[in-house]
Design brief:
By secondary structure, the protein is α+β, with helices and mostly antiparallel strands. The protein is 59% helix and 12% strand. Strand 4 and strand 5 form a beta hairpin. Helix 1 packs antiparallel against helix 8, helix 1 runs parallel beside helix 9 and helix 2 packs antiparallel against helix 3. About 5% of the residues have low confidence.
Length: 272
C-alpha cells in the first residue's frame, strides 16, 4: 500500500506543479508591463469611456477603450465594451474581433458569446463548420467553462483537497472514514488532472493566437501566395479564419471552419 501512496503523491505533486506553471502564464507579446500610475489612469479612462458609451457617444467610447489597451491594460471587460461600441457604430468586423479577444480572456462569459453570435449574423459569409465527433465538441465546450486562470486555481485547490483526503484515508481508524477519504481523493485527483488539461488548452489559445478576422470589405483567397495565384473564393469582413502558415510577411495561408483553404494577404486580416 505504501507504493500506492507514494505513486499518488508523486502524481499529485506533478499536477500541482503544472497548475502553478499555468497560473503564471506569460502575457502575450502585445501586452506591456503596467505601472501603478498607468493602472490608475486606465481606471479613470475606463470610467470616462463607459460614460461616453452610456451617452451613446460611441466614437469617444471607442477612442477611450483603445487608449486603455495601448497602455497594456488588457481585460475581457474592456474588449467586450469596445466590441459593443463598434457594434453600435455598425463596424461589425471590429466588433467581432474584440468579442473574440474578450472570449479568449473569459471563455465562460455567456454575454460575450451571445453578442458574438449576434454580430456573426450580420456577416456576409455563412460558414458551415465541418462536423466532428460529439466527444470532441463536448470536451472543448467543457474546457471553455472557465478561463486558464480559473482552471489553474481549481487544479491547485483539488490537489490540496486530494492531499487532505489521502491523509484521512491513511490515518483514520474508522473504515467508513477511510472509504470516504479514498473515494474523495480519487475524485479530486481526476478533477485536478482535467483542470490542468483544460488550463493548458486555454493557455495555448492565449499564446498561439492562430485565428484572425477578415477586416477588408472583401478579399480574394488564392491558391498560391501571390497575385497570379488562382482565385479560389472571396471572403468578406467579419469572417473568422485560422492561420495555418505564418512564415511569410505579406501572405498567410488560412483555413475556414468548413475545411476550405487558401492564401490571403496579411493586410486583409487582423489576428485575434
Amino acid at each position: 500500500m505504501k507504493k500506492i501512496y507514494f505513486a499518488l503523491l508523486f502524481l499529485m505533486s506533478f499536477l500541482t506543479v503544472q497548475a502553478q506553471e499555468e497560473a503564471q502564464t506569460e502575457q502575450p507579446n502585445n501586452v506591456q508591463t503596467v505601472t501603478s500610475t498607468q493602472v490608475i489612469n486606465a481606471a479613470q479612462q475606463k470610467v470616462e469611456a463607459d460614460s461616453a458609451y452610456y451617452r451613446e457617444d460611441y466614437a469617444s467610447a471607442i477612442a477611450g477603450y483603445e487608449q486603455i489597451l495601448q497602455t497594456g491594460e488588457e481585460s475581457a471587460d474592456i474588449y467586450y465594451n469596445l466590441g459593443n461600441s463598434y457594434y453600435k457604430s455598425k463596424d461589425i468586423a471590429k466588433a467581432i474581433l474584440n468579442y473574440e479577444r474578450a472570449l479568449l480572456l473569459n471563455p465562460g462569459d455567456n454575454d460575450i458569446r451571445f453578442n458574438l453570435k449576434l454580430a456573426n449574423t450580420k456577416t456576409v459569409d455563412k460558414i458551415t463548420p465541418v462536423s466532428e465527433i460529439f466527444f470532441v465538441t463536448w470536451f472543448r465546450s467543457l474546457s471553455n467553462v472557465m478561463s486558464e486562470h480559473g482552471w489553474s486555481v481549481l487544479g491547485i485547490l483539488t490537489f490540496l483537497l486530494a492531499l487532505c483526503m489521502l491523509a484521512l484515508y491513511i490515518f483514520a481508524r474508522k473504515i467508513s472514514l477511510k472509504k470516504l477519504g479514498f473515494i474523495l481523493a480519487i475524485i479530486s485527483i481526476i478533477v485536478c488532472a482535467f483542470a490542468n488539461i483544460f488550463a493548458s488548452m486555454q493557455k495555448a489559445e492565449l499564446l498561439n493566437r492562430d485565428h484572425a478576422i477578415v477586416m477588408a470589405a472583401s478579399v480574394t483567397v488564392r491558391s498560391t501566395p501571390n497575385e497570379s495565384g488562382t482565385e479560389l473564393f472571396i471572403l468578406h469582413e467579419g469572417t473568422k479564419v485560422q492561420i495555418k502558415d505564418n512564415t511569410m510577411k505579406e501572405w498567410k495561408e488560412i483555413r475556414l471552419e468548413d475545411g476550405n483553404e487558401g492564401w490571403i494577404q496579411t493586410s486583409a486580416i487582423e489576428v485575434i
